[in-house]
Design a protein that fits this description.
The complex is a heteropentamer of chains A (612), B (172), C (491), D (484) and E (107). Chain A has 612 residues and is mainly alpha-helical. Chain A has 26 helices and two strands. Chain A has a two-stranded antiparallel ribbon. The relative contact order of chain A is 0.07. With 172 residues, chain B is mostly helical. Chain B is globular and about 55 Å long. In chain C, β1 and β2 (70-76) form a beta hairpin. Chain C is 78% helix and 3% strand. Chain C has helices spanning 2-18, 24-49, 80-97, 105-124, 128-137, 139-149, 154-183, 190-200, 203-220, 229-236, 239-264, 266-293, 297-318, 321-352, 357-360, 363-366, 368-382, 388-403, 406-434, 450-468, 471-488, and strands spanning 57-65, 70-76. Chain C is mainly alpha-helical. Chain C has a two-stranded antiparallel ribbon. Classes of the chains: A mainly alpha (612), B mainly alpha (172), C mainly alpha (491), D mainly alpha (484), E mainly alpha (107). At the B-E interface, α1, α2, α3, α5 and α6 of B face α1, α2 and α3 of E.
Chain lengths: 612, 172, 491, 484, 107
């Protein structure tokens, strides 16, 4: 099967094309195209995974372009890493395709939604399988495009369009770093293929500084895509898109592509310790900052968005401290339970038509299935055994602990505490306590099966994937992280999680501490978190600066450059006026000029000595 | 006593003074009469240089024919020079009050030409000789036959032009 | 074959002029047929190009003015043929897009066909005088097309365009003559002079001759700061003419660099490379910034051309295989993309009679199909992968990096600023024009008509094809480009 | 002196005789039939052409008539050009002459005399011949300019031309007298031999400046150009065309002869002087033209700038520049006569001569407008029209001689010229017709049509097939004593 | 010292001064007839030159100088008659004698 793996991304691509060209005639039935394609893709992906597990692997490429003597081939490779991610992506996507059928019902651009979603999955699958940087980048950008289009799905509201704009532009900022990194590496090695480049890196053929620079540049791309500080500001806004989009793109798959990039080019980072340290620190800061902000969010999707960011920081942190396998493990696990959480949140929003958690409460009643699955996801995210999140987060913590970065371990641990805290807070506000707004709860109905079924399916990996942890990490070829220290770390992790749950429950469940009092007490911190550490302000300032610069250039162009051109024309006309004034009509004046010409001519020749 | 030299200076004085009066005399009739004197002076130079025939032609054509035409025109047209003072810049530069510019140009021209002459050596050929009428006539009808014929066409053209232009509109 | 490309449109202009003015239908049909013929010819010639090695194909060579060594000499290679093909396509599209012309129809179509002949001539001429002839001939119909059928400031824009380009091309003529004399073979043949010039042009002359030729081409490209004719001309010209201007006329400048200046004066080109690279970068960044400052839709697109042509300059300056192939590819890519964008500007202008982006918002809702195509074009302009602009820019900058000197590496680092601003202004444009809800008076606009789609869809299809499979073009360009680099390398 | 020698100037003799006949016809025909004189003029021109044709068969380098006449290839070239101009001017003037009630016989007689003068200038081998030819051209021209008697401006133009012209010829004569003083000869060939390799003396420089002024006046060289716009504007339009082309052409012939042959040894000195004058001339002509609204005045300034271009060719002092100037005159003859003829065609219909009067011409009279387009583009130097090759030739000469500055000046000036030439095109094609005259057609008479067709054909043939003409001027230049 | 006993330079000086006086008059006089007269002075100066140079140099052909002068005189006569005709024609329309008053054509 692996050698035919190219069929997997081809399926959603076909679905995209079909949906675009014949979708309009099918109406909402067009969704079945995508669902069918994704179903088939999922089956194939798992088949491939099985085959790869059995020791097979595949790579295939076709000649694409010839520049001078440089032959560029396009191709894919499927090894263990790829197969694992493929399986996850197809499965989650499939579920979300199914879910969307219900969620997007009645939407004006239902078909377009499915088309873009299909294209997105194509991009993600291509990205995973790409055997070279060029194809990788193409896929990377296609995902970015789909993200843009889907965030702006409801572009009638300018706010949504603005969010899409912001998402594209901010990630583009990272992309140029990625591009530079690709160019640097390709220029140094003469190839765009991962295999060739990494081989040269591992053989130490490239200079240390070049490797460091290249790694940092690549990481810049990852920072943008994976919403790491400081290029994270687009992700919370991206929640303007339909919730399934948030689930798929902005939680499970695309945002993880940055982490995947680091994983894909891991030998490069390993060869550049400074770059790796940067990854670790950025990851840690992101994890902490995002978690802190998440604690004060009132929008259910925003809470989840910051949580995603925080978890991505976790993954980066793991990568940065050498926990390659742990990072990827967390990536997969996170994809499952975060998709679940988002879909459940989507189900809630579908039911109550609001995203404000303060307007909810007690929804566990009418939305029992949704509530329970949400809880499962929340527990997984909080890191409570036996859910997947526990194992994957634990693997990360162990990796950090094993590294020389002591401080980062405590940061990570504190983040784990915060994670448990804000998830409990969200669950409590949404599903428990008494309903705060009567009409919200009265109109709430459980979602149709087409939406709840995917939730139930996703609960399975959320609950069970964790047990595959050791196998998975070995499978993707990481180092065995479980050492002697694993046990105390596990204990600390569980302790942090439980503490977080308890604190949150104390405030939001038992109301042992009045929320407002807490806010009053921690006023400066509250403002800091609420204002998201002022990163948005910073971003806005940069954007304004850019706009100002462009206006300045525009004015310069009009006034100075074009002014110069028109000035020359004006000058010529002026000289013309002068030349014309000579012909004033008086014949005698003409004679005078003539004679003056002669006398000046004689003068030049004789007095100025142009004659020997 | 070098009589030719005396004659030369006399002629030069008369000619140049007359020329000066031609240029400056406000009364056009006077100017015309001075012009006749200058023409005769120039004829004197020709005679001094041994070109007797040319001197004859000069008197005949210039002092005779040209002067007659000039005087006729002046009589016919009753021209008086009007010298306005509120004139545009270019005309002011040429008006008597500002006559400095024409004067400067003329003086500059004279100075530069004289300096040029002083600064260059003419070919020192063998001394020339005066040319007789017969020789001139023969040349005119042989070597210079074409220019001679052309000159007659030229006179014809000038005559036709003069007639056509002086005829009033509508007269044919 | 090539002569037909030039003379078919030219001759077709005659019956069009002779038809009575009232028979617009026939005039349009005839013009369309005349513009379609070159497309067919190009299709017929395409297989012959194969994997175009060095050397010229389909050559025609007849002495014209033997005493001065001037020949009627045409030929195409892998570099010029894609541009010929692009011209054929764009002119057909432009003719189709011109059906809406109401005034003085027959003169209009006749002029467009004359223009086509001249443009084809520029891209196929292999004799300097012939090249110059077509180069100048382009200006004549262009003047009228802008000055008669243009916008409110059309006359200013037209005369500015003409004077500007004429000044440049006359300097170029001096350069050509200097080459002619220094090579001393009494020939104006472009390849022949290129063969001789490196040895025969004295070193003290090289840079000056180069600069004289460059001046002519730089105005056309346009190289900053000689670009200010472009926004005026593009904005005032009627839509199909803006399309031709942006898609083809700008290419004449860069084509001149590829065909003439660099291969003929490789030494000077090397000396000038750094300056050219800097100019390229200035074009890229300055153009993008200026585009971003525009409120007028069409002006934005115009400045975007300034930005995109910078890549071509940069690629040529770098002179590596990837960079030069990328630069040549960019010519075609920008031709397709800018054509689409200008057509779309026209599509929206025809409906709303405004080009103020502030007033246009919500077009996605008002005209969904046109909106989608604008998004497509805008994203292509932004350099999105799987579209040709990306391929061109990627390989151009890849090539710049491959030069390996610190200078060019830094150039690449600076250039990416331009990429960010390019993204910014394109997104801003799409945001302003497409997003939100339309104004009330624009709520019930008709969507794109079949005729408009007929102009846009071929361009979209070509873009997609080239974006996914750039080898379609690069297969041809690679051979000549390798030769180009060999010469530039001084081997 | 044999009679056969007079065959060398058979065309001139024919034309002069024809002029006399015309005067007689004018005098003796009854008033209502005087316009038949036009037919006589036509026959005479054909006769002159035939006479010229006989010369093509005679030995190319015939010298005769006391050394006054050099009927060489060079002379033949310019005489041919002048006769072609005469043919075109005759054809395009018929209607104008009749409609404006010019005296038919005198008009054509004077036109023929002027042409004879110009032709003699181009074949003269002696300063005396040159001077007499020049004066014949000048005097006839002064009269021709004033022939439009119902307009005072015509006489005013005549007076200005006359006063300035007389002064200029006095300057020229003084210069010639200095040359005579330096060499003792009036024969151009002997002069060259006598000047030898000697450096330019002060007196020589003075002579150079004065001769340049005197001949430059005819060619409309700045600063001796100020009469040109006034005269061209005031003169009857066919006369303006004649002055702009034939008179300038004859001046070019005289300058080429005088400077390249007679003053050949001073080439280095005069080429600098002429280069400065050339740049000055083209620049002043161009920038002043930018402000013109009158079509004839505009064409006058354009003539000045073209004089600068021609002078630039001459100023290179090279054989290439020599033939460049010749080719330029040839090309210029067709395009400029054509342009003036279109203006005349408009004037025949009672239209004005302002640019605004051209408005909407493309609609009223598309063929006339198209011809004007052709002429203007050729004047502008757009390939492949005659003007392009002329300009290319000048460029070639300048670059070949290493005078890059001169070439750049020509280039920049050509760019400036775009503005006003396109102004004409703008008026015809872009500007809407003024109210009230939207659809009045301008029908051109038969002779005018033939004349215009001839001019257009010249512009096109010269443009598309320049080879044979280049060969012609190269040979002709070689026969004037300059190896190509 | 030529046979005439007067150095050629003297003649040249006279002719130059005469010529310059003519120039002065041509630029200064506003009456067209007076301008014409001034120009005649210039032509006379030229003729002095021709004759004097011819005599001084004794060039191969002594006829040339006087011959030139004869032609100049002839032409001058023709010129005067034509010029005066133009002046008269103009004066018939307008009673101004200032050549500068005629400025309908300008610019």
């Amino acid at each position: 099967m692996p050698q035919h793996a190219w069929i997997i991304p081809a399926l959603p691509l076909a679905s995209y094309a079909l949906t675009v060209f014949v979708g309009r005639r099918l109406g909402e039935r067009a969704a079945y195209i995508g669902i069918a394609a994704l179903g088939l893709a999922t089956v194939l992906a798992f088949w491939t995974l099985a085959a790869v597990g059995g020791g097979a692997s595949a790579a295939m490429s076709v000649p694409w372009l010839r520049l001078g003597d440089w032959e560029i081939r396009m191709g894919f490779q499927v090894g263990r890493l790829e197969a694992a991610v493929l399986a996850m992506v197809t499965l989650v996507s499939w579920m979300i395709f199914i879910f969307s059928k219900g969620y997007m019902h009645g939407d004006a651009r239902f078909n377009r939604f499915y088309a873009h979603l299909s294209l997105f999955v194509t991009g993600m699958l291509t990205l995973v399988m790409a055997d070279n940087f060029l194809l990788f980048f193409v896929a990377w950008e296609i995902m970015g495009l789909c993200s843009y289009l889907l965030i702006g799905h409801w572009f009638e509201e300018v706010e949504n369009a603005r969010a899409a704009f912001k998402a594209f532009l901010v990630t583009r900022l990272g992309d140029v770093g990625l591009l530079l990194g690709i160019w640097t590496l390709a220029a140094a090695t003469g190839s765009l293929r991962f295999a060739d480049i990494l081989e040269k890196v591992e053989a130490g053929e490239l200079s240390g500084s070049l490797v460091t620079v290249a790694a940092l540049l690549l990481f810049m791309g990852a920072v943008g895509k994976s919403a790491q500080v400081p290029l994270h500001i687009w992700l919370p806004d991206a929640m303007a898109g339909p919730t399934p989009v948030s689930a798929l793109i902005h939680a499970a798959t695309m945002v993880a592509a940055g982490v995947f990039l680091v994983g894909r080019t891991y030998p490069l980072f390993e060869a550049a310790p400074a770059a790796l340290a940067t990854v670790a620190y950025i990851g840690a800061v992101t994890a902490l900052v995002a978690a802190l902000i998440a604690t004060v969010q009132t929008d259910i999707k925003k809470t989840l968005a910051y949580s995603t960011m925080s978890q991505l920081g976790y993954m980066m942190l793991a990568m940065g401290v050498g926990g390659f396998a742990a990072g990827l493990f967390h990536l997969e696990a996170h994809a499952f339970f975060k998709a679940l959480l988002f879909l459940a949140a989507g189900s809630v929003i579908h039911a109550v038509h609001t995203q404000d958690m303060h307007r909810m409460g007690g929804l566990i009643g009418p939305l029992r299935l949704t509530g329970l699955t949400f809880l499962a996801g929340a527990l997984a995210l909080a890191g409570i055994p036996p859910f997947a999140g526990f194992f994957s987060k634990d693997a990360v913590l162990v990796a950090v602990h094993a590294s020389p970065y002591r401080a980062l371990f405590w940061v990570a641990l504190f983040t784990a505490f915060l994670t448990a805290y804000y998830m409990t807070r969200a669950a409590a506000l949404t599903f428990f306590g008494r309903p705060r707004e009567r009409e919200v709860i009265e109109h709430a109905h459980e979602s149709p099966p087409v939406m709840t079924a995917p939730l139930l399916v996703l609960v399975v990996p959320t609950a069970l994937f964790g047990f595959l942890g050791p196998w998975f990490q070995a499978f993707v070829g990481g180092h065995e992280a479980h050492g002697a220290e694993a046990a105390p770390v596990q204990a600390l992790a569980i302790g942090a999680a439980v503490a977080g749950i308890l604190v949150a429950w104390a405030i939001y469940g038992f109301r042992a501490l009045d929320r407002r009092t807490a806010i009053r007490l921690l006023k400066p911190l509250y403002v800091l978190f609420k204002e998201k550490f002022f990163f948005d302000h910073l971003g806005l300032a940069v954007a304004r600066l850019g706009m100002l610069l462009s206006l300045a250039v525009g004015a310069f162009d009009r006034l100075v450059v074009d002014g110069l051109v028109n000035g020359v024309a004006w000058l010529v006309l002026l000289i013309g006026r002068g030349a014309r004034a000579l012909t004033a009509g008086s014949a005698q004046a003409y004679a005078l000029v003539m004679l003056a010409g002669v006398v000046i001519g004689l003068f030049i020749y004789q007095v100025l000595g142009r004659v020997g | 006593m070098n009589w030719p030299l005396v004659a030369f200076f006399f002629l030069a004085g008369v000619t140049l003074y007359s020329a000066y009066r031609v240029v400056v005399d406000e009364t056009i009739t006077h100017a015309a009469l001075y012009l006749a004197i200058a023409f005769v002076g120039v004829a004197g130079f020709y005679a001094l240089l041994g070109a007797d025939f040319l001197a004859f032609v000069q008197v005949l054509v210039y002092a005779g024919a040209v002067m007659t035409v000039l005087l006729f025109t002046i009589m016919l047209s009753d021209i008086r020079e009007v010298r306005g003072l509120k004139l545009p810049l270019f005309r002011r530069l040429t008006s008597p009050r500002w006559g400095a510019v024409p004067a400067a140009l003329a003086a500059g021209l004279a100075a530069l030409l004289l300096a040029a002459f002083a600064g260059s050596a003419l070919l020192a050929g063998p001394e020339g000789r005066p040319v007789g009428l017969g020789e001139l006539a023969r040349a005119l009808l042989t070597t210079y036959l074409v220019p001679f014929e052309v000159a007659s066409v030229l006179l014809l053209a000038a005559m036709v032009g003069a007639i056509v232009l002086s005829k009033g509109e509508g007269e044919r | 074959m090539l002569s037909l490309l030039i003379f078919l449109p030219l001759l077709a202009a005659v019956p069009i002029l002779l038809l009575p003015a009232g028979r617009e239908q026939e005039i349009k049909r005839l013009a369309t047929a005349a513009a379609a013929a070159p497309v067919l010819l190009v299709a017929l010639m395409w297989p012959g190009l194969g994997a175009g090695g060095p050397g010229f194909l389909y050559e025609v060579r007849v002495p014209w003015v033997p005493s001065l060594g001037i020949e009627y000499h045409l030929g195409v290679d892998g570099i010029s043929f894609p541009l010929v093909a692009l011209s054929a396509l764009v002119f057909l599209v432009a003719v189709l897009a011109s059906y809406g012309i109401r005034e003085r129809v027959k003169e209009y179509f006749a002029l467009v066909l004359v223009l086509e002949a001249a443009v084809m001539g520029v891209f196929t001429a292999l004799d300097y005088v012939l090249f110059y002839l077509f180069f100048e001939l382009v200006l004549v119909p262009m003047y009228f097309l802008i000055a008669i059928w243009g916008g409110p400031r059309r006359e200013y824009a037209a005369i500015k365009f003409i004077i500007y380009t004429m000044a440049g091309s006359l300097l170029m003529l001096i350069g050509i003559l200097a080459l002619y004399f220094h090579t001393g073979a009494n020939t104006f043949s472009i390849p022949e002079i290129a063969r001789r010039a490196p040895e025969l042009v004295p070193p003290s002359w090289r840079l000056w001759v180069f600069l004289a030729l460059f001046a002519g081409f730089a105005v056309k490209v346009p190289v900053w700061p000689l670009h200010t004719w472009l926004p005026d001309a593009h904005v005032e010209a009627p839509t199909p003419i803006s399309v031709i201007l942006a898609a083809l006329l700008l290419k004449m400048g860069t084509y001149g660099l590829v065909r003439i200046t660099h291969p003929t004066l490789p030494e000077a080109a090397r000396e000038f490379a750094a300056a050219l690279a800097v100019l390229g970068v200035v074009n890229i960044i300055y153009g993008a910034l200026a585009a971003m400052a525009q409120r007028d839709f069409k002006k934005l697109v115009a400045y975007s051309s300034v930005s995109h042509m910078g890549y071509v300059l940069l690629g040529l300056a770098a002179g590596t295989a990837a960079a030069v192939n990328g630069a040549v590819f960019q010519m075609v890519a920008h031709g397709l993309i800018s054509a689409m964008l200008f057509l779309l500007v026209g599509v929206f202008y025809d409906r709303t009679h405004t080009r103020e982006m502030e007033r246009l918002h919500g077009m996605y809702l008002a005209t969904p199909t046109a909106g989608v195509i604008l998004a497509f074009a805008g994203l292509a302009n932004l350099g999105l992968p799987a579209l040709p602009g990306f391929v061109a820019e990627f390989f151009t900058l890849q090539g710049v990096m491959q030069v390996g000197t610190g200078f060019f590496t830094r150039i690449a680092y600076v250039t990416v600023i331009g990429i960010v601003f390019t993204a910014a202004f394109n997104l801003l444009m799409m945001h302003r024009v497409l997003m939100g809800r339309p104004r009330e008076e624009f709520a019930a606009l008709p969507d794109a008509t079949p005729r408009e789609l007929a102009t846009l869809v071929p361009l979209m299809a070509a873009s997609l094809l080239l974006g996914v499979w750039p080898a379609v073009i690069m297969r041809m360009t690679n051979g000549p480009v390798s030769e180009f680099i060999r010469i530039l390398g001084g081997a | 002196m044999q009679l056969a020698n007079f065959l060398l100037i058979l065309p001139e003799i024919t034309l002069s005789a024809a002029g006399l006949v015309l005067l007689l016809v004018e005098a003796f025909l009854p008033a209502e039939r005087r316009e038949r004189a036009v037919e006589v003029a036509g026959v005479a021109v054909v006769g002159a052409l035939a006479a010229l044709a006989t010369l093509w068969k005679t030995p190319a380098n015939a010298e005769g008539l006391g050394g006054m006449i050099w009927s060489d290839g060079f002379g033949l070239f310019f005489r041919t050009v002048l006769l072609i101009v005469l043919v075109m001017v005759t054809l395009t003037s018929v209607e104008y002459v009749v409609r404006h009630r010019l005296p038919v016989g005198e008009f054509y007689a004077l036109l023929f005399f002027a042409t004879v003068g110009g032709m003699l200038m181009s074949v003269s081998g002696d300063l005396i011949m040159l001077y007499v030819g020049l004066e014949l051209l000048s005097l006839s021209s002064y009269a021709l300019v004033g022939l439009l008697r119902q307009r005072e401006t015509s006489l005013e133009a005549s007076l200005k031309y006359f006063l300035n012209g007389a002064l200029a010829s006095a300057l020229l004569l003084f210069g010639l007298s200095l040359l005579f003083g330096l060499t003792g000869t009036t024969s151009l060939r002997e002069m060259a031999a006598l000047l030898g390799e000697g450096a330019l003396s002060w007196l020589g420089a003075a002579a150079l400046v004065l001769v340049a002024a005197g001949l430059g006046f005819k060619l409309a060289v700045v600063p001796f150009h100020l009469w040109v716009p006034d005269t061209y504007q005031g003169a009857p339009t066919p006369v303006s065309a004649f002055l702009a082309v034939a008179s300038e052409g004859a001046a070019v012939a005289a300058i080429l002869r005088a400077f390249f042959v007679g003053l050949g040894p001073w080439r280095a000195d005069w080429s600098e002087l002429l280069a400065v004058l050339a740049v000055l001339t083209m620049t002043v002509g161009n920038v002043a033209a930018l402000h013109q609204r009158n079509a004839k005045r505009l064409l006058a300034y354009s003539s000045i700038s073209h004089a600068g271009f021609i002078l630039a060719g001459i100023a290179t002092g090279s054989a290439t520049g020599f033939s460049a100037a010749m080719f330029y005159v040839l090309a210029y003859a067709f395009m400029n006569v054509g342009a003036f003829a279109v203006v005349a065609a408009l004037a025949n219909q009672g239209e004005g001569e302002e640019l605004d009067d051209l408005a909407g011409l493309a609609r009223r009279e598309p063929i006339l407008a198209f011809l004007m387009l052709l002429f203007v583009l050729s004047l502008l130097g757009i390939p492949p029209l005659a003007g392009f090759w002329a300009k290319l030739y000048v460029f070639r000469a300048a670059v070949d001689a290493g005078r890059i500055g001169l070439a750049v000046a020509v280039a920049l000036n050509s760019a400036v010229a775009v503005a006003y030439y396109y102004g004409i095109l703008r008026a015809m094609y872009v500007a809407p017709a003024a109210a009230g005259r939207a659809e009045t057609g301008v029908a051109a008479g038969g002779a005018m049509q033939i004349g215009l067709a001839l001019a257009a054909a010249g512009v096109l043939v010269l443009g598309l097939f320049p080879e044979m003409f280049i060969g012609w001027v190269t040979t002709a230049a070689g026969l004037a004593g300059l190896a190509p | 010292m030529p046979e005439a006993g007067v150095p050629v330079g003297y003649f040249f000086a006279v002719s130059t001064l005469l010529f310059s006086l003519g120039v002065f008059g041509a630029l200064r006089r506003t009456n067209p007839v007076a301008i014409l007269m001034s120009i005649e002075l210039m032509l006379n100066a030229v003729n002095i030159n021709f004759v004097a140079f011819s005599r001084h140099l004794g060039a191969a052909d002594p006829v040339r100088g006087p011959m030139f002068a004869i032609f100049v005189i002839t032409v001058a006569a023709a010129e005067v008659s034509l010029g005066l005709a133009i002046v008269l024609a103009l004066l018939r329309r307008r009673r101004s004698a200032d050549v500068n008053e005629f400025d309908a054509l300008k610019g």
